[in-house]
Amino acid sequence: MLLGASFINLVPRIGGTSFEIVESILPPIYIIFFIVAGLKLRPDLLITMGLIGIIYMICRIIGKMSGAFIGAKTTKAEPVVQKYLGFTLLSQAGVAVGLACMVSGELAAYGEIGQELGAMAITIIAATTVIFEIIGPIGVRYGIMRAGESGRE
Question: Would the pTM of this model clear 0.85, i.e. be above it?
Answer without folding.
Answer: no
